[in-house]
Please model this.
Amino acid sequence: MWAYSFMQNAIIGGIIIATVCGLISVFVILRRTAFAAHALGHMSLTGAAGAALLGFPSMLGQIILNVISAIIMGLMGDKVKKNDLAIGVVLTFVLGLGAYFLFLFQNNYAGGVMGILFGNIFAISSSQIVQLALMGVSILIVMAIISRPLIFASIDPVVAASKNVPLRLLSVVFFVLLALTVSMACQIVGALLVFVLLIIPGAIGMQWGQSIPRIVIISILSSVGAVFSALLISYHYDLPAGFCITMLLCIGYFVGVVREFIGKLC
Amino acid sequence: MIECRDLVLGYDKAVTKPFNLTIKDNQWIGIIGKNGAGKSTFLKSILGNLSLKAGQLQVFGKLPGNNNTCISYIPQEREINLADKMSGMSLVMNSYRGWKLGLPWSGRSLQRRVNELIDLVGANEYAHRPFMSLSGGQKKRIYLAQALVNQPQLLLLDEPLADLDPHAKQHFIEALQKIHSHRELGLLIISHDMHEIACHLDAFVHFSSTGVHYCETIECVKEDTYVGV
Model:
């Protein structure tokens, strides 16, 4: 199994994507931007369709459209609560655009576009690994630079604003990082299941961790563990990788729910 | 500490008449007035969150908003987005120099400082419990520790006693008393229960329909029944 290059690429790519998703998912939950993560996943389809129409790689289309949408979302609502409406407006517009692109594209082979819907980690090439690694390292570096004000602005926005923390700028930067992460995660689980990698690892981290560093570590470990295990299961039992990742993470979350339930009974 | 010259406060419309006011360093001031008189607007203007309608306002010799790292604000309404298991201790730790870039602060010196503050405000018993499970009064004392973690020179408290039962109010006032005796810092506090803390304050600023007045004692605003003297 380890000798196959597609398996090596899948494992390396999977670990890069899972690490980034594990970190970002904690902030997706803290900042209550789950709807944004969900929306960006759906918008990826429009980006991929637009790119295919123009003859560009689908991931490039995804990134460009997601980043533009992320900037608009970030600018439209700098406070966590306001974002739902802003995201809903952008999502509606972009999905409409996506439907039109697919209509224009209907006479051509739309496999690349549909691949975005479900993802295919075993199709990751060596050049894509390099792209994913560059994007992953860039996201981690930016997160390390902004983590302190981002945490402060996420957990206590009113007091952070009183200390001149630039909430709107942080909101835009975070949405752009989220957009890039969604574009990466779509390679594995696809636009329909991207939500899984951007919500459940953070949720598991919050079930077990009491401080943000611990929550982040648990989130990354659960995300990487789930992707790695899912790849092995997928290879040996010929099951879809996206399905295995989803099931493993959901089981991980369910274990935490049961633990809390038992803790309340004792 | 605060210097106002012909200052007019307001949002779209002016809510105060022009007023002059000087508040010296380390003074503890009670801000009194009916709802809508401009009390919270005054605190937000000090932070530079609202532009002035007219006049001048200087905070520690600078224009509002330019000195916010040495001011701590406890707003009347806030939104806390902590994870279910995160404690008040985490809130305080993550608020330490939260405006600076980089990874979150940690280390023993910060831990020691936060422990001292938790002790000062009397929150030792529950500082490690999940913040979301705390009562209103317990949360307010954690907010006080959070406000002090950046060693401010000025504390702005917007109705910290609102929604507290008499017991919780008493604990909060005791925490303020301890802060007053241990630290040199100025304080502006808005409260509709001013009679309960008046004895710990140096002076009062009265926002009324006739203007904004500085009073050495709470007796001078006795005519306003809501003060409850």
About this structure: Chain A is about 85% helix and 0% strand. The interface with chain B takes residues 29-32, 79-81, 144-149, 151-165, 206-213, 215 of chain A (CB under 8 Å). The mean pLDDT of chain A is 87.
